[in-house]
Amino acid sequence: MATGEWRTQTIIFFAIWTVVGVLLGIALKAQFRLHTAELPSTRLPELARAYVQEKRTVQALETEIRQLRQKTTELENALATGTEQARVLNDSLQAAKMLAGLIEVEGPGIELILRDSQRRPQPGSTESLLIDLYIIHDLDLLRVVNELRQAGAEAIAINGQRLIATSAIRCVGPVIYVNDMKMASPFTIHAIGDPNTLLGALKTPGGVLADIMQADPKMVEMRALEKVRIPAYTGSTQFRFAKPVSSEEGAK
How far apart are CA 165 and CA 122, in angstroms? Predict the structure, then answer.
C-alpha cells in the first residue's frame, strides 16, 4: 500500500473513532440524566412541566445520537471505497452493528398492543383480590418478548425502544422501565419476522397471552404487517467491566 493511501486510511479511521467517542459520551450523558434527574416535590403543575422538559431533553439527545451514528456509518462507507480489505472490514462492521441493534431496520412483522383493562371488580367481591389480572405487568412484557424471540423475531421494540442484549424491563411502582425509559399502558410492541409464525406463537392455547385474554380480551390487540420499521438502539453501548479475552489468554 502506498504511503499516501495509508495516510488517508489512517485519517479516516481516526475520524470514525472520534465520532464514536463523541457518540458514547452523549449516550452516557443521557443515561446519567435519566438516573440522576430530580423533579420538584411541590405542586403537580410544576411536576408536569419538569417532566415534559426532561422528556424533550432526552428526545433531543436521542436525535443527536442517531445523527452521530449515521455520520459514523457514512465514514465507514467512505472507508469501504478503498482497498478490498477495507471493504471486507466494513461489511463485517455493518453486520456487527446490525446484530447489536445499532441500525434502524424494516421488514414484515407484527404489531401487538397490550393495555390495562377498563374493567374493575366490585369492591369487596372475591374477584377484587385478582385486580392484578387487569393490569399489564413487566413480567407480561418479558414473557411476550421471550416468546417472540423464540419464534424467530429478528428485531423487537416496545413503545419505540429497541431491545438489545443488555435491555432491561422492570417495574418501579405504577410504571415500567424499558431501557431506563419510563412507560405506562398501553404498550405497543413491534417485531420483525415471519408474521404467521410470530402471531401463531402468541396465540398458542395456554401461551403467554392466554391469562390476559381470559381476564379481558380487550387488553390484547395484534395484527400482521407487511412492513414494520424498528428504530436503532440509542442508549449507551459502553462496557465498563467486561473486556475482550486476548488470543493468548484464550489459548491457556
Answer: 42
